[in-house]
Each structure stands twice: as structure tokens, then as C-alpha cells.
Write a structure and sequence with these properties.
alpha+beta, 15 helices
Length: 332
């Protein structure tokens, strides 16, 4: 069988996440732009217009990076990016925070700054100014849908991201990766954001330049993994991981639950308090589907593993994120 092909985009958060994962797995792959002449075939076979799509050696075309990483973990178990047991739940939770929450910050940086919007739209459009204008029309709508329309939310999203960079910088002084001395799915999504957005778009790139260790890690160090190294043993966490758990408690949890409840009620939008301001978000099925993957991960564990991770989630005040597991009265 031949290798793998990623159909994606160099400025795509999730395409670059999958690219980072393929490098960590040590798999033979090609990264190919999703060209107009193949778009219809790719979308029909993968069932989505979104990128990335992975063409496997079996000639399958599969989308959605989290399940893809789980599939590839089973193929390259020595280099698995989701640990087994309770630690895998923590990795999944933190990956989810970057997948479904910090993605809005990437969108904000790209489309709310003229310089970055002009750069990204023209690059996405292959230099075609007319196509670039259409891309730029989409940007502000995406920002409104993900709750960064107000100046306050923009400022707070940027402050949140800078706190993340500070925590990354501290962590990378003590371990090679963000959860320890081997990579996980968390490193993949963080690298996706850096490589596709914050070290690509002109505005956030100036911010990132103040963190040379992170830039070096993203550019080179993160690729040269031999397959060895260990992670902290549950319930211990790296300082970076604990920092993210503390952050997500204040933001992502209310967002995810607001989206869940809106879907249950059939609403098209919902409001939650984010950084002291009531914010409107577009109700979207995928964040709920993604949250359900965490529920499924926990349900698939042994009784002993569930009895270990449950008290940890309650102690970290993250049990509210998973009402199916902790609240018998929660609507299904």
C-alpha cells in the first residue's frame, strides 16, 4: 500500500494539526492543497466540504481530525497521541478546548486585522483578487458566529492567548512537549494553530516573535521525535496542562453547555456570559458531537478507570461539562 495524502490548506488550523500528527506518527504522507478540480470528488467521498480530508492507503477518504488521530493511534500504537485510561481523558479535554474554543481566537486574529485579512484571503485565493474578496466577506461572519464581534471579546481573547503563550514558554523550558517528554494530541492542535495562524498571519506573528523558544519549537524541534519519552502519571499534570484546565473551566465549559442546551431546544443561537459580557454564539452541531466523543471515551473505560477519573473531574470542577455522566436529571 502507498502512503497517506492530506487534502488541506497551509492556512487551515485543522489541516496543520493533522500534518503535525502525521509527522509525530512517522508515517509517509503528502500534503496536497484541495484544488478546485478535485473538490467535488473529495467532498462527495468524505461527506464534507471542510478540510482536512485524509486519503488512506486503503483508498478511504476520511474527515474529522480527532477520530482520525484515534484511528492512527491504533495503527501506530507505540507513537499513540491519545494515552489510554484517565490521562487520555485529560488529553482529550485539553485538545477539545483548543479545537472548539481557541479556534475562535485564530479566526479573530485573521479577520479583524486588515493586514492579516488581506494576507490570508489573497493567499487562500491563490492570488486571485476577486476570489480573495469573497473569502474576506466570510471572515467577519465567522467572527460573529464564534462570539468575537465586540471589542471586549477581542481584547479578552487576545489576553487569553497570550496567557497560553506564557504558559507554553514556561513548560517548554522543562519538558520537550506540552504534556511531558512525548507529544500528544494537545501538541498537534497547538502546532496547528501556530503553523497555520499565529506564525503565519502578520498581526499575531509579531506577538509570537516575542517567544523565540516557541517559534523554534514550532519550526523545528517539535518534528524530531524518536518515539520515546514519558508523560506525567495521572493524576499529576504538566504545569501547562493544569493551566489549561483552569482556563477552560471559566470559558469553554459554559460555551459547550450553552451550545448543547440550544441544540436540545432547537434554537439557532444562544447567549452565555463570557468574560463578564453576554455573548451571542451561533448554535452548531459539531461542538456537541465533539463533546460527546469525550463522554464516549469515559464510558468505554474500565470501571476502575472511571472511578479514578470521575473524582478528578469533580475536583477540577469539570463534571458540569459532562452532565450525562454526573447528573441523572440532565436532559438527553
Amino acid at each position: 500500500m502507498s502512503g497517506y495524502t492530506i487534502f488541506g490548506g497551509e492556512l487551515s488550523y485543522f489541516s496543520r494539526k493533522l500534518e503535525a500528527a502525521m509527522i509525530f506518527y512517522g508515517l509517509d504522507f503528502a500534503f496536497v492543497p484541495k484544488s478546485p478540480d478535485r473538490a467535488q470528488e473529495i467532498e462527495m467521498r468524505a461527506g464534507t466540504h471542510q478540510v482536512p480530508v485524509l486519503l488512506t492507503p486503503e483508498n478511504w477518504m476520511i474527515a474529522d481530525t480527532t477520530p482520525l488521530l484515534q484511528l492512527l493511534d491504533s495503527r501506530v500504537p507505540r507513537r499513540a497521541l491519545f494515552p489510554t485510561g484517565p490521562l487520555g481523558v485529560i488529553v482529550h479535554l485539553i485538545e477539545e478546548y483548543f479545537d472548539e474554543w481557541i479556534a475562535r481566537t485564530m479566526v479573530h486574529y485573521r479577520w479583524h486585522y486588515e493586514e492579516s485579512a488581506a494576507f490570508a484571503s489573497l493567499r487562500m485565493a491563490g492570488g486571485n483578487a476577486e476570489a480573495a474578496a469573497r473569502v474576506r466577506d466570510w471572515g467577519p461572519r465567522a467572527c460573529r458566529a464564534t462570539g468575537t464581534a465586540s471589542t471586549h471579546q477581542q481584547q479578552m481573547a487576545e489576553a487569553e492567548y497570550q496567557r497560553i503563550l506564557d504558559a507554553m514558554d514556561r513548560q517548554l523550558r522543562t519538558t520537550r512537549y506540552l504534556m511531558g517528554d512525548r507529544p500528544t494530541a494537545v501538541d498537534c492542535i497547538v502546532l496547528g494553530g501556530i503553523r497555520a495562524h499565529t506564525n503565519m498571519d502578520p498581526t499575531p506573528k509579531r506577538l509570537l516573535a516575542g517567544y523565540p523558544a516557541i517559534v523554534n519549537w514550532a519550526d523545528s524541534t517539535a518534528d524530531g521525535w524518536s518515539g520515546d519519552g514519558s508523560l506525567a502519571a495521572f493524576p499529576e499534570l504538566s504545569n501547562f496542562a493544569q493551566f489549561i484546565v483552569d482556563e477552560m473551566r471559566e470559558t469553554y465549559v459554559s460555551f459547550a453547555l450553552g451550545n448543547r442546551n440550544a441544540l436540545l431546544s432547537g434554537a439557532k443561537a444562544f447567549h452565555v456570559d463570557t468574560y463578564g459580557e453576554e455573548v451571542s454564539y451561533l448554535c452548531r452541531p459539531y461542538p456537541e458531537r465533539s463533546r460527546q466523543m469525550i463522554v464516549s471515551r469515559i464510558r468505554s473505560m474500565t470501571d476502575d478507570e472511571q472511578q479514578r477519573v470521575g473524582p478528578w473531574l469533580e475536583a477540577q470542577k469539570l463534571s458540569a461539562l459532562l452532565p450525562e455522566l454526573f447528573d441523572p436529571a440532565a436532559p438527553r
